[in-house]
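Hi R.,

Quick one: here's the 8-oxo-dGTP diphosphatase sequence you asked about.
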Amino acid sequence: MSEAVKPIDVAVGILMQPNGDVLLGQRPEGKPYAGYWEFPGGKVEPGETIFAALQREFKEELGIEVLDGEGWCGVEHVYPHAHVRLHFYISRSWRGEPQSLEGQAFAWQGSVGVEPLLPATVPLIEWLDLVRYGEAGQSS
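And here's the predicted structure, written out as tokens:
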């Protein structure tokens, strides 16, 4: 019998440019799922609000100051190494240009073309297209 594990709260940020492009980062070597692409973010510390965690993580990982964030959705996902509760925020306003402060690759994506995507990220891409473009599947 496995005992119920309380999910780890994780703040996840989707930086969205005016044209709808979003920032994805690649998980660095030494972390579970190294090489997989995801939206940046990190664990919420005790006593920290989710948005404060998001701001802290973006400053630590990318050197930018997130100025606003709109709560978008929450997703729970059980990985072999962790049970996480992901809290997604969409931010259209930040100060500074993203830099790779932890050695991770990152890329602005319109139509998401990087692979592999972290499993919890995959279903969100289609939902995100509804936010970015108004309708899923705007291919001609």
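The chain has one domain: 8-133.

Cheers,
M.
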